[in-house]
């Protein structure tokens, strides 16, 4: 079995601080951004935004701890959570504090005992945030979107079939994007060279701006300001290192700080020269783009590929040892664990209490040669996650036909220690699909990465907007669509009637009529949903440009066009259909019970569903125990799931925006299947109101009973090449599978066979039901137990009870 290196004492110290974190809500960014916004009140947004960023980089607190070797903070507090008043209000915590719901202890307010997320805020920060509330009341990006919407949006909201719902997420509450920035360009070219490129264009066109030149002028001017902000920020961190070194009494740490300061001063303008400079350069850019806006997307991309050339050179020259390099990798991912955003307790239901969205992609092939590109850093990243038992960032391991067995061993040992990590992604499916579906050039297709939950994107060249142009508008609720389709267009959850009427189940005489009703309703709702997304995209180019991001993205500097405006080399769009196994099983139930076996009438089944199965338990149990289910290699059930996913893909082919002619379909979800369950009426497969729908593309909970190979057979009933939004397939394995060499080999070979048969992705929870039950009963004993939900991993004991039960309900597999 694969053995991991030990971690150093200061790495363990940092890890324990992170594990016991209490997030501190921070007012500094909000106050500084407000002051800049007032200063530049009437400046056009494309210039106002980078000017505000510059003011922030100039005046923010520079913080790092004495034991850190990779540094960078977005806040004056070690676990600070900065606020973005231009995007979203702070009422979710300001009002409870004002109402006395947060107790005050020693000058700090703390959220109530029993909430999953541990939060605090000082009196000073609370008062500072209160003081700026009135200014932002009518100045947020969403102010414009909320003031008027196109026809049809009111119907979409009242139907309660998506995140655009009454009381749901605002249309523009998070910034546009969700992507992988061009980190390799930043560390390989440097800010000064990028700035010079922009300035050269400005100098050449001074006083001579005709036609489209003005658009380019505004972009290049914003780019120079963004570069100035980046250079200033990194130099301030450099000086902080040098200042700490001057006051340091420990000779070893003093030398380390001096070296860090000199290196930071260099990379403030120039390309990285060493492994440490490359890693620190990525982190500094990460800080910059997250200061600019709220989650453009902080996914870190192909970290091992971008940093390996620098480490290789350091190892060859003797400047660094493998153990020293491992400590740098450890420090990098621990630093990434300091960037959680505070949020209300209800978010535990859908995102857990710790998800930074810094999805990191390792392994895969060389984009130039197509050969396996596994390198020492690939293993180091897995060792960091496994040894330190980190649930975040999410790690995707790209697998190809030449991936070495040692890499499999390392990855599966990581999965044994840390549930659901890494995610296994299949290059042999994804690379040709990117070429065929999205027109990616071969180099860019080979260079793909994963973001968010599962979304497949180009690295540093793609503005994919896979969760709507303004996240998190990724999906419609297909369970509700199904219920509306068999209820003449009325949502039984809230009684709201759609403009489209489809008839009642008891009026339908064949499974084909049922499918047609679902297809009509699905197409209708999807087009309403995408129309709302497209209206939001209409707003974004003026209000939401991102010059600090755009300077690194292929296409933007070449075109003189911001990423939000379509400047990137590739522009796509997309969303996801969570839990289509529930729809498939519902169709199978109707076909089996009503039309093929004639076990009950369509009227009886309709009445049972509309009654939420009250008084119909014998029928419900017959359905649960007799009807075939997806996940068991049964073509009778699998064909209905295939019909559902194919329908979703076909509808997506009809959707597009001005910026993107392609709407990608995905089959993933964070833990949206649990949240959707609360809002989706009962379904014909025997599911009751409030119960989760199927997670992502996995079988419905406990409906798979024929083992993991049967799940894989069912999962390959449709063409995975079509689903470039990404696919998430969860399997729970008993720990005995990975406790012995033959079990490891069997799981590896089974996964390979699934990939050879066209499977795109799989992720394994390695934990038994007994352990999960014990963890519920005694959380302190299992505080480091990591599990995979669907699109993210979390410490099991920090999940809400419904999420815990959802994990427990999944079938436990053995080999």
From TrEMBL:
Cellular component annotations (GO), alphabetically ordered: cytosol
SUPFAM superfamilies, sorted: PFL-like glycyl radical enzymes
Residues in PFL domain copies: 9-688
Domain Glycine radical: 695-815
GO terms of molecular function: lyase activity; transferase activity
Gene3D superfamilies, per database record: 3.20.70.20
InterPro entries noted in UniProt: Form_AcTrfase_GR_CS, Gly_radical, GRE, PFL_dom
Superkingdom per UniProt: Bacteria
Residues annotated with Glycine radical modification: 791
Protein name: Formate C-acetyltransferase
Native organism: Sporobacter termitidis DSM 10068
